[in-house]
Amino acid sequence: MFKNLHLKVGLFVITVLVLALGFLVYVLHARGFFEQRQHLNLAAVSADGISPGMPLTFSGMPIGQVTSVTLSEAGGIVIKSEMSQDGAKWVRTDSTFTLDKPLVGGAKIKVSSPDLSSPRLPDNATSLLLVSDPTQEIPVLIERVKNILTNVEHITRKDGELNGTLANAKTITGRMSGKYGVLEGVLGSEENARPVVASLKNLESLTNRLNDVSAKVDAMLAKTDRWLFAEDGLSEQSKQSLALVRAMLTDAQGSLKRVDALLKNAVDISANVKDGTQDIGKLRAEIDDAVRKTNDLLGDINRMWPFSKDVDMKLP
Amino acid sequence: MEFLLNIIERTGAKTVGWWNASYGVLRFMTEVLSTVANPSAWNRATLDTIVKQIYFTAVQILHVYLIYVTAISWVIITITLSTARNVGLFDAATEMIIRVLLLELLPFLTALLIALRSGSAINTEVALMKVNNELDALSHCKVDPMQFEFLPRIAGGVASVIGLTVTGSVLTIILAYLSIYGLSVTGLSSFSATISSVFSFGVLLGLGLKCAFFGLAVTTLPMAAGLETPKKLFMVPVSVLRGMMRVFLALVLIEVLSLALKYI
Fold this sequence. Notes:
The complex is a heterodimer. Chain A is 59% helix and 16% strand. Chain A is an alpha/beta fold. The longest helix of chain A has 40 residues, at 190-229. Chain B has one domain (41-263).
């Protein structure tokens, strides 16, 4: 029995020792005693609501905690915190730190890293702590709500604008329920609304007619298009005839030059023979006439078909 | 006038009584401490008795204690979790469970259990020894009752309270984890973070000290009460009553003091 007793007590004591030691090691491990901790300093304007032991969370998961809160020489607040190496990998150079103080529950520092590919924050780095505190906004909010309520009270008082507006609205909606609906409401009475409705009807028939016209114009344009620019269309033909006319004119100009020279000779001869004959003077007048006519023809053609430079077509 | 004198006299008597009792307890405590500090007191015989005391105080009731801890922890964890879920403070539930159960309730209940079971037994035993002149007989035989009767019981009591609390705490932590996260290891990091934030070194040291003081209270106070017993058999129940009352007051006092030190 005695040996049995010793065995049982020994077992109990060893179990307790193992459990106690195990728990101690677990707590030490959880507190990061066996791994290198990464330190982070946060600068804040006020230490309000910040206390040692406050967790740092990334996406809601704890990755570290605040170890101390101290005043710096410049009067600012320096919050020292540390993270496990496992947690520190979520903190990047472009991470932001926000103090989150919910209305209910403990405050925490939220870490958000928008870009997880940016480099990791070095040990003992200093960053700025932003504060989002809904309780601080409450007084401002209440002040604004108060103003709004005063305004609402002012508007809804017995002889206020709202009552007058509502009365007007009632009259208008009453009219709107008449024969000409909203138009009557806007214009005031049935008599005023009637011409508008009539003109609207006119407009409808006018639009119909306009539609017809534009359809016809369309068809016409298509035809003109075909007539002008088809393979054997007018445009092609006039181009060919103009080429002929130009060749003809060039010929005529050449002959005229020759005739001019001839005439000069003739004049010289006639001067020589003095007075000459009546026939030659007649011939001269006729030739002058022919030259004038040719010039006119050339001018006409140039005016009608300014083909040599400008190929712009004027459509009807 | 006589009435007034009567009141004053009674108040004086009570004060003297309290003073005597406190003085007795304090003297006994200093005696215990001086024996503890004396290396020659820790011989083979004393250690054997300590082992026996641990067996009777802790090992014998271990299974009962574990069932009791499981039941009470499970109930409190479940209530805390469902309440926390209802009021939207589930994040704080783990910390609440650890703080309430592990740091306060379990050590207190363990000490209370040992006081009820072993403390009362020690009180009765010492009172009977006193009444039957056994203590005088032991002293007469050059057997120091402090070394062979009292010290082993005190050491055994302290060790038992600490041992049972450690066992119960580990069980409660496992139960809490299972209740919150179930049979998965995904919550381990967040659970560890909470544990680490609660159990600073100061808190761990305070918990150990508190358990030790609880162990001291549930053994020395009944012994002191037993030693005070007048040598009349009918005074034994009165002695046990007084001793247990003092134990209860002392436990509450230690608990309140520890809380005050921690949170004020």
